[in-house]
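Slide 14.
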Amino acid sequence: MRQPRCELSSNFSHVTQRGLGRRALFEDDVDKRRYLDTLKRMMSEYDASILAWTLMMNHVPLLMKTTPATLSRFMQRVGISYAQYFNGRHGHVGKVFQNRFSSEAIEMEDHLLATIRYIHRNAERAQIASTPDYPWSSYREIAGGNRVLEGEGLCDVAAACDLFGSMDNFIRFHQLINEQDGFARIDGYRPRICDSDARAIAQRYFGAEFSDHIVGLPKLERDKALRLLKDIGLSIRQIERLTGIGRGIITKA
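Slide 15: predicted structure.
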C-alpha cells in the first residue's frame, strides 16, 4: 500500500444524517432503496461524490467529497426529498431528520482510510451483521464479488480503491480490528498521527475538555469513545497521554 500524504487538499467530510430523536428513518427495505435513490438523484445534480456509506435504522453515515457549500445544499435537498416521501408513504406528521446533519472535515489521509472502515463497520459494531454480510453499505461494491448490490453505482468505487492501493488491501484493512496500537497494518505500512494532530482530532470529536469528558463517561460510552479514537488512528500510548486512562483499559475497549 502506498504511503499516504500528511494532508489532503480535497474536500472530504464524514457526514451523519440522523432521525429526529433517534427515531427510525426506514420502516422497510423499500424505504432504504428510496433513500439510496434520492442520494443518486442528487448526485447527478451536484458536483459531489460518495466514497463510503452505510444505512442504519436511525442514522446514515457517509464519506463525501465536495465543497462545504455544496455539501450543505446537497444534504438539505436529500433531507427534504426523503422526508416528503417518508411522511407521504407512512402518514407521518412532522420532521423526520434532526435539524442539521453533522459533518467532520477529514484533513489527513490516514484519517480518511480509518473513516471509511469506521463507516462500513457500523452494522458489525451494532451486532447486526458482519461487515461483508451487511447488504446496506458500500463495502460489497468496493470489495467486489458475485453478490447482490444495494445502491449499486452510488459509491465512487475507483476513488475508494485508489486510496487503499488495491481491492485486496481494502478487504484486509477492514479485517484487521484488534491491532494493539489501534490501527491496521498493511504490508508493513503503519500510518502515524503526531501528538498535536491527535490532540486536535480528540478536540474535534469530544470538545476542548475532551480528557475530562471521556473520563467522566459511563463505561460503555467511554469505551465507545476510546474505540473511535483508535479507529481514527491514534495509538494507545497517545490516548493514554491525552486522557490519563490506563493502557489496559484502552486496549480492552
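Speaker note: Residues 195-252 form one domain.
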